[in-house]
Amino acid sequence: MHTDVREYINLCRVKKGNMSEAELARRTGQTPQNMNNKYKRNTFKISELEKVAEAMGADLKIQFIDKKTGEPII
């Protein structure tokens, strides 16, 4: 599955009770406009993704997946 970060965050927001983008922005200490700009550009730093995960009551896990096997490298 090739989901970009923006799409993944949107899927998670829906799963977490249709949390609005504005509510997510508020919970991460950003303005809705700033969050919207990040969505448009699809530019999230790891530190911002950690805040997004925290706002959703989740942990952030990043993995490298082997393209041939589809399995995590580590």
UniProtKB/TrEMBL annotation:
It comes from the Bacteria. Coiled coil: none annotated. Transmembrane segments: none annotated. Residues 17-57 form the HTH cro/C1-type domain. GO terms for molecular function: DNA binding. This is Helix-turn-helix transcriptional regulator. The lineage of its organism: Bacteria, Bacillati, Bacillota, Clostridia, Lachnospirales.
